[in-house]
Amino acid sequence: MPMPFVEIHDRQPAVAGQFYTNDAEALRVEVEGYLSQAQPKNAAHTILAMAPHAGYYYSGIIAGITLGQANLAETVLLLGPNHTGLGKPFAVWPNGRWLFPGGALKVDEELAALLCDKEPLFEPDTLAHQREHSLEVMVPFLATLNPNTRIVPVSISHPSLDTLIGVGKTIGRALRAFDRPVSILVSSDMSHFVPHDLAKAQDTEALEPALRLDAVRFFETVRGSNISMCGVLPMTVGIAAALELGATESEITGYATSGQINGEMRRVVGYAGMLVS
Questions:
Q1: CA-CA distance, 262 to 248, in Å (whole number)?
Q2: Which of 16, 156, 230, 272 has its CA 20 to 30 A from that of 190?
């Protein structure tokens, strides 16, 4: 096992007070409310989940019903897109804690080091995460579900399909050999800033190969049809990893657009939840 990283990195929240409230008690109540609307927790271990990362006002309910139904391991590998363009193409937050109003989740330093050892493209890098919201908004949900959850946050910006598939397979093999169960959580919104009906049609087109766990077809569909799904890169990695871990079942937990929340149907963002076991 590689030596652990030495310098400790705690991450302060970047979007508290914007994407979600910075009031600790109000945040707890809000997240519990979203999670309470989920179907009963799945019996099967959740290998892979996908949940949206917009402001909680818009996407909190889809995130809540998805993560509330998920049967997540106590260690969660977080895969998200890089909206800022900062940092490494596969940026791993190596250690320390991710703070949020009212608490923190510890980074699973052992798993972070193992993944960096097994996959040369994985690099310890905090810059990619400093102003990135996609994984931060997942943390209060995971902490509410289980405050002992440990996370390994990875920000992904590498655009090559072959590389993404290869990295996903490496992750799957590493997790299969790891001595503790791990779930993968991909953070992604769907179509951006198109009319409601077009978003639903495009997002249905994108989700169909994802449900079939066809990572190549999923990537090619999103790119080929110009679907503005921000998490296509981490979800491609996640599907490839899930297949290595023996995934066979998938389901959509919910779908909505921002227009159904604010009434503006001409320019929406789509939100979907998905579970794979």
A1: 37
A2: 16
CA separation for the pair 264, 244 (Å, rounded): 41
- Name the percent of the chain in helix, strand, coil, to the closest 5: 40, 20, 40
Contacts of 258 (CB under 8 A, 6+ apart): 54, 58, 59, 264, 268, 269, 271
- How far, in Å, CA of 15 to CA of 12, rounded? 9
Q: In degrees rounded to 5, what are phi and psi of residue 142?
A: -65, -40
Ramachandran region, residue 191 (left: φ > 0; alpha: ψ -120 to 50; beta: rest): beta
d(CA 269, CA 194): 7
Three-state SS at 157: coil
High-pLDDT (> 90) share of the chain, %: 97
CA distance 271 to 11: 26
Alpha-carbon span 25 to 164, nearest angstrom: 39
User: Are 277 and 46 in contact, with CB atoms under 8 Å apart?
Assistant: yes
Q: How far is CA 86 from the centre of its chain?
A: 18
Bridge partner residues of 251 (DSSP)? 275
User: Is 180 in a helix, a strand, or coil?
Assistant: coil
- At 215-262, the pLDDT tens digits run 999 999 999 999 999 999 999 999 999 999 999 999 999 999 999 999
Domain 29-263 annotated CATH 3.40.830.10? yes
pLDDT at position 7, please? 87
Domain map of the chain by residue range?
A: 29-263
Query: Quick check: 67 and 32 in contact, CB under 8 A?
Result: no
**Residue 248, Cβ neighbours under 10 Å: how many?**
11
Tokens of 57: 């006002």
